[in-house]
Amino acid sequence: MPTAEVCRRHGLSPATFYKLKSQYGRMEVSEAARLKALVDENAKLKRLLADTILDNVVLKDLLGKN
Questions:
Q1: How much is the average pLDDT of 3-19?
Q2: Each residue of 24-59: pLDDT tens digit?
Q3: pTM (2 decimals)?
Q4: Which of 5, 46, 49, 59 places its Cα 20 to 30 Å from the Cα of 17?
């Protein structure tokens, strides 16, 4: 299938297609799945850290006002 047809079906520009191909083209399916799992886990950890920091700020604010 021509590259232009693939791009049209998936709503990508050819530049985006080639950029993604250069980044992920050499990966096996298992490696891509592992990368996705790691990205998801990283996002979860970042949310947990943000929640913890917010809790600390709120507690310091409450203790500081008393």
A1: 93
A2: 889 999 999 999 999 999 999 999 999 999 999 999
A3: 0.62
A4: 46
Domain layout of the chain by residue ranges: 3-65
Block residue for tokens 């050819």? 14
Per-residue 3-state assignment (H helix, E strand, C coil) for the chain: CCHHHHHHHHCCCHHHHHHHHHHHCCCCHHHHHHHHHHHHHHHHHHHHHHHHHHHHHHHHHHHHHC
Question: Residue with structure tokens 């998801």?
Answer: 40
Contact 14, 3 (CB under 8 A): yes
Q: What token pair was written down for 22?
A: 């250069």
Give the Cα separation of 13 and 11 in Å (integer): 7
